[in-house]
Automatic annotation (TrEMBL), chains A, B:
The gene is clcn2c. It is a multi-pass membrane protein. Its main location: membrane. It holds the Pfam family Voltage_CLC. It catalyses: thiocyanate(in) = thiocyanate(out). The keyword Transmembrane applies. GO terms for cellular component: axon; basolateral plasma membrane; chloride channel complex; dendritic spine membrane. It comes from the Eukaryota. This is Chloride channel protein 2. Residues 54-83 form the 4Fe-4S ferredoxin-type domain. The chain crosses the membrane at residues 85-110, 131-153, 173-190, 202-224, 236-262, 274-294, 320-342, 363-382, 430-451, 458-480. The lineage of its organism: Eukaryota, Metazoa, Chordata, Craniata, Vertebrata.
Length: 894, 894
């Protein structure tokens, strides 16, 4: 069993290695880190401001006006720096440079391989060794480097961006380390010549760039110093623009980039962000292409894979069925690709024997896969039948060629010049070459994208699609050598056009996007095939979406990222589920009049990012929510060294007083407590009753009674529940015992750790006593940031409405209130469970416990009204005993 | 003064005539109409289902299986009919047909004008008469026809669609009448040759089509019969797709159509609707172009305004500054256009003398404008200097020509063949022609779009932009006759490319969209100028957006449509405004235990679409919201004839009983009332106290006391408020007097109107008495649809959050609750006021009354906590007197 456990752990590790996996702990850590950063940032801004003021004061004597002018200019410049458009320009510039440099390095890597391979043409074995070793080394280096520096850089990055843009904080995915790992890892991975793509990683790299640039620009002030709530939404907008830049500078396709990034990352898109994406992506694409011109690669700015199809008669109406066939077949192909990719990952994960072996040498899996793929593409070997010596880019250029390969009659028209030679095999038909290319590349790409290096799948899929389109086009050209149009003028069929259609259709099917059509137009610089492309892409999407999730959603599921799945249409049962069926009734909360001990306990037992603040455990009326970090700082202030030193000073003073006058012990402590209580403007109820895990219904009524007992102590006989005070105290004392006392929480450790001071003459025992005393004090929330309007839902809100609100507002959790009383909390997790329960398991509808009785009623309207009354009755009995209490007590007093 | 009043009214009318104006009454009427339709639809669906069941029962004897099979097939077909994609295909097909037919008719109209003009070339005066009369007649007919049939069809329709997609119901804009008026009006208006566009109206027409198609398909069942909440969101999605279809089939530009419609109509866009737009727009564009091929206008499917620029070297990098200049100038031009358009409308509205004159003959304004414009374009007159004889389409084709006009040296290269001749004037330079064309068309278009006919401004602006681009391009070509590139190969400048850039930039500036770039690519079929176009469009947008609202937003303001303006970034003061500052504290509500009289009064005094349902006037705890229509039906059920006849029958029965046995009068009535009360599961409090206009704070405490009085009548001395029961009754009796008694409300009139029945032997007085009696009964909400979770906000929600939630969820209003108690309501109106108050008046910040004190505090966090306590104190004193009441009463009882 122990071996099994370590196996399990090893498997877990392997999974992280394979795909990286989101863990809650990391997220929480990141959040706290973020809070720390934010606070330090705010502190700095204050000091900056005071510095400016100092400057003004200091220089008043000399040439004050001049100085003021300078300061103003500086201020103006600084405020300008914070403007969106400067940020976007910088982002675009940076990404264009990164993209160009990466492309340049990849080109050099590929050339080096070719040179090695070409130089060793005397010996086939040496050639093979060179052909194979080079990519294996590069991929292994890439995998190792990424693994060591930042495992988050593995994979495409689009699933993570989707999750981040959804509002979930995955801060560890946006660090400088990740940036370095991703850029270098990607360059090496693509330089190896494996069928991997650049697009997905570039979306991630652009987001990393934006996050880092944002941090960098916050040094200069401006918008970046503003309250974090605003800054957070601004950051999300900037990240959305960055995604567009990523695609835009990768393909020099600004419009397609914006649309693709919207489709791939957003659920609801704010149209006001539209221009940001366009602006940054256009600028980026422009610089990217200008760099090519500047480097003398191109004479002027043109498309990346420029085609030269004729403009007058791009295609005939009668060719449309062939385009439709490409679309439908691509749809099936896309779904198959996603399925195959998932299958490989799951297979590798399941095979324990393989895993144990691979785990030992972590880099073995990438090396083995690379070896297999590069062996198969070895040009003198099997590679000769599948144009193995062409790089991805060269393949695409040849596939989009506007000449027809299969035309037999006119030999002089097609000489297989340049790279196109690779497709021509002396013994084998070009059709066989194409089919082999498609089949081999298909599984190779699906396999290669599971390697734990920074890589995407868009480009390989794009090339496969182009090859498939070419195949259909060549077949059509062979079938109708004179073209289809019978009106006299002969317009032959252009197989290159079919390749364009196929590329857009297959990549659209795999990613579930329509905007690949636009990317294709921008990549080729020709829009003449717009209608065939659109038809094929839409058909491919229709087929693929009904069969499989998109590649990115599939990876999100594999990685178990905290993402909210889409709510499909036409699933009636979901309208029957209400929030009350899925909410967590056991809410962690703090009360307005709780003591620090309660705070401590709540912080110890739960890991929630925000905690609900209620009026009291009896009324449960929701007042707001407080962040965990705020509470932690409250607690550390209360138990921190400065306070303790102050206490020591006060004690010494009191000691002195006692020396001089007759003392009355305890008054000091009492007055302190009174002054503490004065800070609370609501302190009528003195109960310290605040259970960590409240039983939702039972304690309400007795608790209420007890509170009235405090006010009228003589009238009502003490109920048995009144003893609960001591019992609960015991419970509280017990709970830290069970979890925390043996090993005090880190925050406390640090306070008792640095005690080696001169003035600090307290023993550890005294400190513990003092801390115990401090913990019994009431919490002072005055210096605490409270969100006064956390998101609330009513318990009868439908699942559909909840889902919409969560996705629209990017919520992480929402409190469920009933007549102002906190009765539960719904987080993404519950919502996801509820949706997946009712959506993915189609046959076996996982029904929530309360949904069934609603089906029995025939007329929904009548039902609703009755239920409303029932609901109301329940609340009355539960929550409004106040109205009944007086009459009860009156009866007793009479 | 009376004359002034009628003037005012006349002016109002004229404004409606000029632009159509949204009135609240119409909206309310439409909503009620919609509710009626919905109900009847539901009734029909139920009857359909029962019919099917009947059929099954009836035919069981014969060949039951066969029948069941048929029914199932029918069901399957019917369910298929409800599928989205069938709807979208039908919509696309229909719109393509409409677009093609409209284009065809417009072409015939324009040809007829040309033919008339050409046939009369012997006499210039006759020629002038023909040239001028033709458009005047057409425009006048269009204006008159639209005015008579459906004034809502006037104008572009995009502002209205923007408002409707925002969630505001403008049902009168989506009727069959409007459809007919819009299509015929548009055809005539465009057939006149005035500088008007087809795009905006087509967005409206497509939406009309979708709405009508949706209604039509609901006859077949399927999704269209489902609960209205779902159907409503579905309708909005379909309308969004329809907008895309409108643009798509107008320009044969599916991608640009989708993007343009998103930019123009949405604030937040649900990405899951993306495919709908693409699907429908592609299908529509496809059919639209296929119709052209079928009609032998084209040989195959190509772009609408196909260009033939060279592919190899579309433009040089050094030309980019010129493109940037076009962009910036277009930005200023676009802002000027919007300003000019608004100025003309406001000028016409203000001039009372003109108005009085124009008002008398309503069609005079269109006729005068048309006369002016067509006089100026008369080809032998001033028109010869501005290519006046070209239609809009011809102008655009010539402007996008890939030949250079200004090149002097090579005469044979440019012969001014075809329509291009129009630009060549023997005496005048082509530059002068172009400048005159731009200047004249600019104000003509701005003027023409104010004519009350169905028309858009996109196409005229597009043409002006193309002319401006051409002007810059020709200047560049004249300046650099050999091109700019110095690398040996001579690539001359292509002024047509500049025209493309100019067209995209100016139309983008006027509409504040970036997607005009995509439309341009799809219109011309060439994407080679992507970077210049993108740069120019973005610059134009940047300039125009900082100067003026978009044309559509400008019209929304002129028409005073209920639209929520955008919240700009960087306006700090808005984060200081809370919902409590802007909410309406005087909420109309009904209580759970109110009587029909209260319902009646509430319905009489307010015009709100939904009413809040609270537990009682004392607690104000929000239970849900009820639609006005529901309440009306409740009231009419209570006072309706069937109930009265039943009462008569019962009375007759009682009479009979009284004849036979000794009677105890009143018991009948009493038992009825008891049974009435049994329906209420909550009826502990018997107070009928439910003021229509509650003073928010005062009545709470006394009212509470009074309710406790009911339960303990002996203990507490009666407070002066106890007499309020009678006083309030008087108030209630008085309020209908003031407003409604002299003229009973229409719903009641109808009940007392059709009394001429045989059995109905009650006198009018008896009826009035009976009605009074009925009105005193408690309302039975059992058959009433109650929304159990209306949208709630906390009073401290910031304006920013409120705005986001309103725009995201398309809310019309939200209730503001504090600890479950209804304390106010915020509707679009208040929100708009708050935003406009703090945004548009930049210098004079209109500050809400409560926002100021929040600025005084230095540390916001401290402030918040203290305020929370304050808030809490206030609530305690306000809302929790229940806890204190017992102690008070106890003191008294002791």
């Amino acid at each position: 069993m122990a071996g099994d456990g370590s196996d399990q752990r090893a498997l877990q590790y392997e999974q992280t290695l394979m795909y990286g996996r989101y863990t809650q702990e990391l997220g929480v850590y990141a959040k706290e880190e973020a809070a720390r950063l934010r606070e330090s940032g705010q502190r700095r801004s204050v000091s900056d401001r005071s510095r400016t003021l100092d400057l003004l004061e200091y220089d008043k004597g000399r040439c004050a006006k001049c100085r003021i002018c300078t300061v103003r200019c500086q201020k103006f410049l600084i405020s300008r720096v914070g403007e969106d458009w400067i940020f976007l320009i910088l982002l675009g510039l940076l990404m264009a440079l990164v993209s160009w440099v990466v492309d340049f390095c990849i080109a050099i890597c590929l050339q080096a391989q070719k040179w090695m391979y070409g130089g060793l043409d005397s010996n086939v074995f040496l050639q093979y060794l060179a052909w194979v070793t080079y990519p294996v080394v590069l991929i292994t280096f890439s995998a190792g480097f990424t693994q060591i520096l930042a495992p988050q850089a593995v994979g495409s990055g689009i699933p993570e961006m989707k999750t981040i843009l959804r509002g979930v904080v995955l801060k560890e995915y946006l660090t400088f380390k990740t940036f370095v790992a991703k850029v270098i890892g990607l360059t090496c991975a693509l330089g190896s010549g494996m069928p991997l793509g650049k697009e997905g990683p570039f979306v991630h790299i652009a987001s990393l760039c934006a996050a880092l640039l944002s941090k960098f620009m916050s040094l200069f002030g401006g918008i970046y110093e503003e309250p974090w709530t605003k800054n957070e939404s601004r950051n999300i907008e900037m990240l959305a623009a960055a995604c567009a830049v990523g695609v835009g500078c990768c393909f020099a396709a600004p419009i397609g980039g914006v649309l693709f990034s919207i489709e791939v990352t957003s659920t609801f898109f704010a149209v006001r962000n539209y221009w940001r994406g366009f602006f940054a992506a256009t600028f980026s694409a422009f610089i990217f292409r200008v760099l090519a011109v500047w480097n003398r690669d191109e004479e002027t700015i043109t498309a990346l894979f420029k085609t030269r199809f004729r403009l007058d008669f791009p295609f005939d109406l009668q060719e449309l069925p062939a385009f439709a066939v490409i679309g439908i077949a691509s749809g099936f192909g896309g779904a198959l690709f996603v399925y195959l990719n998932r299958l490989i990952v799951q297979f590798i994960r399941k095979q324990k024997a393989i895993n144990r072996f691979l785990m030992k040498k972590r880099l073995l899996y990438p090396a083995l896969v690379t070896l297999l793929v590069s062996t198969l593409t070895f040009p003198p070997g099997f590679g000769q039948f599948m144009a193995g010596k062409l790089t991805q880019k060269e393949s695409l250029v040849t596939l989009l060629d506007n000449r027809t390969w299969a035309k037999q009659g006119i030999a002089e028209e097609f000489d297989y010049i340049g790279h196109s030679q690779a497709w021509k095999h002396p013994q084998v038909n070009v059709f066989v070459t194409l089919v082999l290319f498609i089949v081999m590349k298909f599984w190779m790409s699906a396999l290669a994208t599971t390697i734990p290096v920074p890589c995407g799948a868009f480009m390989p899929v794009f090339v496969i699609g182009a090859a498939f389109g070419r195949l259909v086009g060549e077949s059509m050209a062979a079938w109708f050598p004179d073209g289809i149009n019978t009106d006299g003028t002969i317009y032959p069929i252009v197989p290159g056009g079919y390749a364009v259609v196929g590329a857009a259709a297959l990549s659209g099917a795999v990613t579930h996007t329509v905007s690949t059509a636009v990317i294709v137009f921008e990549l080729t610089g020709q829009i003449s095939h717009i209608l065939p492309v659109m038809i094929a892409v839409i058909l491919a999407n229709a087929v693929a979406q009904s069969l499989q999730p998109s590649l990115y959603d599939s990876i999100i599921r594999i990685k178990k990222l905290p993402y909210l799945p889409e709510l499909g249409w036409g699933h009636h049962e979901k309208y029957n589920i209400r929030v009350e069926d899925i909410m967590v009734r056991d809410v962690r909360y703090i009360t307005l009049n709780c003591c620090y001990r309660d705070l401590h306990n709540v912080l110890l037992t739960g890991h929630l990012k925000t905690l609900a603040l209620v009026e009291s455990a009896e009324s449960m009326i929701l007042l707001g929510s407080i962040e965990r970090a705020q509470l932690q700082s409250l607690l550390s202030q209360q138990l921190g060294r400065p306070r303790r030193l102050e206490y020591i000073r006060e004690r010494a003073l009191a000691e002195k007083k006692r020396m001089s006058v007759v003392s009355n012990p305890g008054s000091e402590d009492g007055s302190q407590r009174v002054s503490q209580e004065v800070r609370f403007q609501i302190s009528t109820e003195e109960s310290t009753f605040s259970p960590v895990r409240p039983v939702p219904q039972k304690p309400l009524k007795p608790a209420l009674k007890r509170s009235s007992v405090v006010e009228r102590p003589t009238e009502i006989p003490t109920s048995p529940h009144d003893n609960s005070g001591i019992a609960l105290k015991n419970l509280f004392c017990a709970s830290p015992d069970a979890e925390g006392l043996e090993e005090p929480p880190p925050s406390f450790k640090s306070f008792s750790g640095d005690d080696g001071d001169v003035e600090d003459d307290m023993t550890i025992r005294e400190i513990a006593e003092w801390e115990e005393m401090q913990l019994d004090e009431q919490v002072n929330f005055n210096n605490c940031k409270i969100d006064p309007a956390p998101f609330q839902l009513v318990e009868r809100t439908s699942l559909h409405k909840t889902h919409t609100i969560f996705s629209l507002l990017g919520l992480d959790h929402a409190y469920v209130t009933s007549i102002g009383r906190l009765i539960g909390v719904v987080s993404l997790k519950e919502l996801r469970k509820a949706i997946e329960g009712s959506v993915t398991v189609k046959g076996v509808k996982v029904r929530p416990p309360l949904a069934s009785f609603r089906d029995s009623g025939t007329s929904s309207s009548e039902n609703e009204a009755t239920e409303l009354h029932k609901l109301w009755d329940r609340h009355k009995s539960m929550s409004l005993p106040r109205e009944h209490t007086p009459s009860e007590s009156d009866e007793k007093s009479q």
